[in-house]
Amino acid sequence: MTRMMTAIGALLIAGTAQAQDGDVLLAMSWDEIVETARGGEVNVFMWGGADTINAYVSDHIGGILADEYDITLNRVPLADTAEAVNIVLGEVEAGAGMDAGAVDMIWINGENFRTMKQGDLVWCGYVDKLPNASLVDFENPAIANDFGVPVEGCEVPWSRVQFAFAHDTARTPEPPRSIPELLDWIEANPGRFTYPAPPDFTGAAFVRHVFTHAAGGADALVGPFDQEKFDAVAADTWEILNGIEPHLWREGVTYPTSITQLQQMFANQEVDLFFTYDPAEIGTAVENGIFPETAMSYGLSDGTLANTNYMAIPVNAANKAAAMVTQNLLLSGEAQLEKAQPEIWGAAAVIEPSRASAEVQEGFATLERHPSVVPVEELGQAALPELTPDWTRAIEDGWIRNVGN
Questions:
Q1: Over the stretch 137-147, which tens digit does the pLDDT of each residue have?
Q2: In CATH, what class is 2-158+308-372?
Q3: In the prediction, which pLDDT does 39 show?
Q4: Closest by Cα among 161, 169, 179 to 301
């Protein structure tokens, strides 16, 4: 954390000599935007908890930016996306140069995207300028909406994920495959399950799965926040989660603080089940010797949450042109194919491969899935929509007050 804050502080102090006005960029051709970006830098603020993702962005994407555009990519790791949003908010409220902000790009989640969009903190209207945006189906509701918030040209998708569970087939050959089965399994196997305490992103997602189960299914929660409905479902949810608490790891007296800690607990056989928003993580953990070769990811018969990952450019970003070049690169067929390689990341593409070059199409067609990773097609058959930020925030706050204390 200290090193992270040092890096952020250095960027805040250093600033940049290449502040760029958004309206001026929008009037340029793509070639002019690239030339404006050439020789500059881009400060990308993103969650830093996965070595594979960090390496993909810093080494692969950063390497191409350096070699082909003479752009330096500075990856600034975050524990919480809100840290980057607060930097942007502080700069804007302080009246600092509107095109001289320290944050050029943020790997953002739905709740923080809504905050930035509502506060006019995110730059919009530039996405059509990106040549590789033509590879994306922006009519797809899963891409056009971020946790129920219309994207409307204010952020760029770059990856897709879906929640999945994992078990060691050698130790737990028949894992629970639905939320009701899981709740029964927890009671029958005391001390062998736990989840990160919200507001950890993945832990909060697990709680939303239980909340959805208590509501009778995702259809009951789609749409704007409903306080009366929330109160009724929340009461059942807290009863369920408090009921299983004595059967959790360490009898629920304490919870892991992060998904990274839960991963290590599964690796150390302290718990028998793991879950993640990125099923490819299971294959990577096997390849790196963290998980045994008998580890296997799987979905639930009653569905798991699916969402799209996005990158946003703050309204006061100093290096907007370089951020645009970076986002365009992330959307390229080649970069999407590289990201999909199981030994690199194994993440699902956000583009339509059929719109890419013949070489890229062939690459996707022959892509080998890691044997420990559940097929994307299988997971997709039971994908649940993400709730709007009002719902997610209320569920997280409710858990903290009613279960975590």
A1: 999 888 998 98
A2: alpha beta
A3: 97
A4: 179
